[in-house]
Design goal:
Layout (H helix, E strand, L loop, with lengths): L5 E4 L11 H7 L6 E7 L6 E3 L5 E3 L6 E7 L5 E3 L2 E4 L6 E7 L2 E6 L5 E2 L1 H4 L4 E5 L7
Length: about 130
């Protein structure tokens, strides 16, 4: 069974900048920084609670779900990640398709199974940091 975890970019509320002041200083957090952990959205301020007992408010538009796989370098693969399989000119985006995560070739209608190709996959970015998808 795969581990269920998420990542998202930290986004402190603009309406109350003091709410997380001490927490932000203690954990060296800033807006736009990625955080991984358990996703909590049924509350006033959606947040991620990390394994290090850090709680951070997040930008819901940047939430990515872990696929349960790692690339050839041991990097966790999330939906929205951009990767290639040896040729940096042929890139894929991890998407949910029908019943699971799969790689969709950028600029094409082709798909590649993540589990089958995981030994060749190298994550090179994601759709939230790399606008040139």
């Amino acid at each position: 069974m795969r581990q269920i975890k998420f990542k998202a970019k930290i986004k402190f509320p603009e309406d109350d900048p003091r709410a997380y002041s001490l927490h932000r200083i203690k954990h060296h957090m800033h807006n736009g920084q990625w955080i991984e952990g358990d996703l909590h959205t049924r509350c006033a301020h959606p947040h991620i609670h990390s394994q290090y007992d850090t709680v951070a408010p997040i930008d819901l538009d940047t939430v990515c779900e872990f696929t349960g796989l790692q690339d050839k370098n041991g990097t966790d693969i999330y939906d929205g990640d951009i990767y290639h399989m040896g040729d940096p000119n042929i890139r894929y985006i991890v998407v949910w398709h029908d019943t699971g995560f799969i790689g969709k070739q950028i600029g094409s209608s082709s798909y590649a199974g993540l589990e089958h190709w995981k030994e060749k996959i190298e994550v090179v970015g994601n759709t939230h940091n790399n606008a040139e998808r």
